[in-house]
């Protein structure tokens, strides 16, 4: 009996449209959120995820069959998909929301991604995504997706080594005490940290090619998921402005100032 050929890998990369990291954030007039009428771009951690997927295909060439990117957001989020396609992804899925729709929460996003994976006829072997989005800063979606799928997970990855034939990955992740190495079986979810790689700039020819790559549009109803937020934002305010410091002539004056501020010095 002739041995069957190993199935090629299919990679899914979720990406998010966020306020550009260089923009100064301002609270909107009704104090229910921030001013969104500013420059947006792809979440920086998601850029790292797209770059890593493209590098894996460059490393393993014909063993990675497809790189698909998916975003959940308003019509303008299609620009984020096109950026990912220009970086080297093959196709995209846009779970389109109305402009007035509130941003979905991590659990809703994870459920939508689970539904997207279930629709893929050829399956998904590896999900690579940013460890967090710089707007909500929750850092929960990857872990929730792995839990919903009952897949292995390796979060805060700073190095990914893949054995395509064995369907295994060796991931170095950053923890408080240093580095930890995990060995996981595919399918799995990997979330990317800053030191994993440096994303490439899309070249003009690739930007032009990205316009012709297929992007499928679906709605939350098509996926049979409810993205209605469970949490309500009551009020958003800017942090208090930092007060200027003062110089003191000696330790006695410092202690006196601390006492005036109601702070009791601790005896050595």
Describe what you observe in this structure:
It is a single chain. By secondary structure, the protein is an alpha/beta fold. It has a single domain, classed as 3-Layer(aba) Sandwich (Rossmann fold), CATH 3.40.50.620. The chain has seven helices and eleven strands. Helix 2 links the parallel strand 4 (64-73) and strand 5 (91-96). The longest helix has 17 residues, at 44-60. The termini are far apart. Residues 1-5 have low confidence and may be disordered.
CATH T-level topology: Rossmann fold
Number of domains: 1
CATH top level class name: Alpha Beta
Radius of gyration: 23 Å
Largest sheet: 9 strands, mixed
Task: Name the CATH architecture.
Answer: 3-Layer(aba) Sandwich
Helix content estimate: 25-40%
Main location: mitochondrion
Subcellular location: Mitochondrion matrix
InterPro entries: ET-Flavoprotein_bsu_CS, ETF_a/b_N, ETF_b, ETF_beta_N, Rossmann-like_a/b/a_fold
Subunit structure: Heterodimer of an alpha and a beta subunit.
Structure summarized in a few sentences:
The protein is α/β, with parallel strands linked by helices and 268 residues long. It has helices at 44-60, 78-87, 106-119, 141-149, 204-210, 220-223, 251-260, and strands spanning 9-14, 17-19, 40-42, 64-73, 91-96, 126-130, 152-163, 168-175, 178-185, 188-192, 215-218.
């Amino acid at each position: 009996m002739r041995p069957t050929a190993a199935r090629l890998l299919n990679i899914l990369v979720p990406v998010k449209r966020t306020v550009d990291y260089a923009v100064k954030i301002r609270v909107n007039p009704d104090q229910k959120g921030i001013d969104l009428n500013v420059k947006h771009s792809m979440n920086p951690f998601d850029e790292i995820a797209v770059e890593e997927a493209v590098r894996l295909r460059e490393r393993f060439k014909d063993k990675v069959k497809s790189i698909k990117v998916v975003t959940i957001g308003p019509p303008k989020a299609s620009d984020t998909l096109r950026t990912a396609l220009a970086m080297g992804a093959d196709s995209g899925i846009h779970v389109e929301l109305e402009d007035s729709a509130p941003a979905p929460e991590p659990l809703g996003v994870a459920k939508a991604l689970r539904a997207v994976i279930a629709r893929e006829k050829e399956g998904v072997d590896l999900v690579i995504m940013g460890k967090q989005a710089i707007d909500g800063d929750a850092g929960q979606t990857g872990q929730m997706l792995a839990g919903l799928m009952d897949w292995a997970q390796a979060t805060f990855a700073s190095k990914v080594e893949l054995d395509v034939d064995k369907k295994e990955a060796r991931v170095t992740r950053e923890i408080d005490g240093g580095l930890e190495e995990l060995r996981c079986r595919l399918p799995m979810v990997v979330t990317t940290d800053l030191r994993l790689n440096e994303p490439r700039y899309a070249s003009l020819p690739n930007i032009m090619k990205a316009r012709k790559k297929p992007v499928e549009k679906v709605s939350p109803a098509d996926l049979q998921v409810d993205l209605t937020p469970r949490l309500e934002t009551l009020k958003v305010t800017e942090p208090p402005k930092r007060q200027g410091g003062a110089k003191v002539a000696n330790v006695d004056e410092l202690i006196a100032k601390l006492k005036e501020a109601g702070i009791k010095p601790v005896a050595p």
